[in-house]
Amino acid sequence: MTLREKVAYIKGFIKGGGINEENLGQIIELIVDALDEVASAINRLEETQLDLEEYVESIDDDLASLEKDLLGEEREPGFGDDFEEVECPHCGEMFLVPVEDFLSGEEVRCPACGKAVVPGEGDRANGDGK
Prior knowledge:
4 strands, disordered C terminus
């Protein structure tokens, strides 16, 4: 019997016979049984929560290690100096392009629509000169 079913049973038991000296012990026993199940469910939730916290911490550690490998120890997480923001002329999506690609004028693919974009072309045409 699920916890919800036990609570419904207790409600029905009380509603059907009321609370009196004859059934008070039985009602208390049913309530204690339901509370025991509530306590067990809370314990299972706490254990699951702790497992999830440990898992998220391990993912965070793995991500930090990956960032360290990709960016190097001396690098700050803010790597915006090595990238330029480009707007796709086809879909208007903004995305980052490495400075080398931006300056080379070679086309890249927009991650949103997949169409070819020549970084810096629109900026040079507008006279922005980034």
